[in-house]
Amino acid sequence: MLGANVITHNYVENVLTEPFLIDGGGIYTLGRQDGTVMNDNYIDGVHNEYGGIYLDEGSTGFTVVNNVLTNCVRNWLYKGDFNKIHDNYATEAQEPNRDETLAIGDTLQYQFENNDLWDEAAVAAIKEAAGARAKPQPVDPTPDNPEPDNPEPDNPEPDNPEPDNPDQPGTEEPKPDDPDSKDDFIYTMNDKASEVTVIGKFPADVQFVVESLQAQKHKEVLNSIKDRSIIDKYHFEKIYDIYMLRNDALYHADGAFQIVIKLDEALLAKEPKVMYISDTGEVTEIVSTIKDGKLIFTTDHNSYYAIVTKKEARSPIVNTGAEPMQGSIVTILFMGALLIFVTKKIEDVLN
User: Fold this and answer.
1) Does pTM top 0.70 for this prediction?
2) If 258 and its partner were Cys, which of 9, 199, 275, 285 is the partner (CB 3.0–4.6 Å)?
3) What gap in Å lies between CA 160 and CA 27, rounded to an integer?
């Protein structure tokens, strides 16, 4: 477990500017980091969800204090659980916009206090310490000792000189396996059949695989789920086996990546969620968002992922009393017929 880290004096400006970059933040964390402090950072301009500071799934043990967050489109903070967040300077965003502390039993789930402050002097000091500087002044293009427009060198070199030593470092072209070569990494992979896309940073020879489970396998995975109450609450509309391969072996990504699944309008109307299903049958809901007809979530491993929708509550069966009423009608008709029969017999006797 990571812990006791310090994230401080960073200046972050204009991030998540592309429409497909959604699930991120000016500063993003994932996982438990007890004793970690995030302080004196200046974040200006976060153009998509979720927050200027984004404490994502399982991000606990953080103290977030004395940071400046401004021009965040939606949230200035996505706060996570069991964290202390106090005395930060934030301009207004959609949420959160108030101080609150949520208690679970005797333990504070999170402490969230004094974050609606704004002090120009304090903000300026944090901005300066975080590295934000005034724009540089234009440089005078006229030097003190101007040179001729096209000076001729004393020892002119040919236009395309050959290196003296071709083996000398720095003279060769980048090779395909050069770790600094841009061609060594890919950032988006798409499975056209399932309309599932993964966004992250992966070696160029990684293969992205998405299997939409068919009826028999779908049933097997559902049967493996330990908590059967989940089956009663949700329709498992689709289950995907999402994984990556490299050299015909399972590849485990180094860090988190984003999954984007295109859904039809009928399924979107049901407000779908994402469930992670482990190999041992454990089910965990994954934080997700819907944008432009796509369901988007972040994870860091290969697994089964289910698109689920909530089942409608069953209406209780009300006894309308229709059957007893039908029996009563039959009885009345029978008694009426019997009365007519008896009356007829009496008349025959009297006559």
Assistant:
1) no
2) 199
3) 46
- Cα separation, 70 vs 31, in Å, equals 25
- CA 94/CA 72 separation, integer angstroms: 9
Q: Is residue 174 part of a domain?
A: no
pLDDT on residue 47 = 77
- Pair 112, 8 in one domain: yes
Tell me whether residue 166 is in a domain.
no
Show the tokens assigned to 200: 């992250």
Is 34 in contact with 4 (CB distance < 8 Å)? yes
Number of domains forming the structure of the chain: 2
Range in 36-50, 162-176, 177-191 the model is least confident about:
162-176
Residue 99 lies in a domain: yes
Q: Residue 237: which CATH number?
A: 2.60.220.30
Question: Is residue 332 in a domain?
Answer: no
Closest CA to 26 of 101, 78, 98: 78
Please identify which residue in the block is written with the tokens 């007829």. Answer: 344
Strand partners, 63: 37, 84
Count of CB atoms situated within 10 Å of the CB of 207? 13
Is there a single domain that holds both residue 120 and residue 189?
no
pLDDT at position 165 over 60: no
Q: For the purposes of burial, counting CB atoms within 10 Å of the CB of 123, is it exposed (0-12), middle (13-18) or buried (19 or more)? A: middle
Domain holding 14, by residue range, is 2-129
Q: How confident is the model at residue 241 (pLDDT cuts 50, 70, 90)?
A: very high
Phi-psi region of 322 (alpha: psi -120 to 50; beta: other; left: phi over 0): alpha
